[in-house]
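REQUEST FORM: STRUCTURE PREDICTION
Request ID: SP-0412
Submitted by: Lab K.M.
Chain count: 1
Length (residues): 230
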Amino acid sequence: MEPGIAENLEMVRSVISQAEKASGRAPGTVELVAVSKTHPPEVIQKAVDAGQLVFGESRVQEARAKIPELSSKLRWHLVGHLQSNKVRVALRLFEMIHGVDSEELLVEIQSSAKQLGVFPKVLLQVNVAGESSKFGFSPAGLLAQLEAILRLDRVDILGLMTIPPLAPSPEASRKYFVRLRELRDRVEKEYQILLPHLSMGMSGDYRVAVEEGATLVRVGTAIFGERRPR
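STATUS: Completed
RESULT:
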C-alpha cells in the first residue's frame, strides 16, 4: 500500500491555498485534479478517503478499467492526448477533456457528441512554447481556426490548457503560464466569449501556475509518488 497519500494531499492543498492568498485570489478558486495514471484503484482509494474527488487519467483504456472499480461520486478528467478512435469512449467516461489539440479532433468530438446526445466540456491545448515534441495549437493557429471551432455547437469550450517545457526551476514555467493567460484574455475580448478555465501547472510548478491564474492544476507525483511501470 502507498504510504503518505493523505499527508501529500494536505501539503498540496496547503500550497494551493497559500498561492491563492499570495496572488489575491479568493479561497477555493483553484481545483486540484489528482493525476492517478499508472496507479491502481486501491491507491486511488487512499486519496478518496482523504477527501479527493477529482482525478485525472491520461489513457482512455486505463481509465475504462479503473473507473468502475471506484465510487460513482468521483469526477474524472482526461489530461492526456486523446486519439480520435477513442473519442466515443472518452465522452462516456470523463466530465472534462483537457488536451483537445486540433480542429480535426474537435470535429470528431462534435460528431460523436451528436450521436451520444451529450455536450462535452473541453479545454483547448495550446503549445505556447512551440515545442515539436508536444501536441497543441500554436497561439497563432488557434486564433486562425477559432471562428470555425466556435461553430461546433455540441462542444462546450471552457478554456485553455498547456504543458510548459521541462525545466529545473518552477520559475522557468511562469512565462508560459502568463502567455496562456494573456491568450485566453485576448480570445475572450475579441470573440466576446467566456473561457473560465486555465489548466496549467503540475507537480513541479503548480504554485507558480496558481499565481498566474490557473483554475485547474494537474498534480500526480506530489500526491501519489513516482509513476508505476505500465
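NOTES: The two ends are 17 Å apart (CA to CA).
Reviewed by: T.R.
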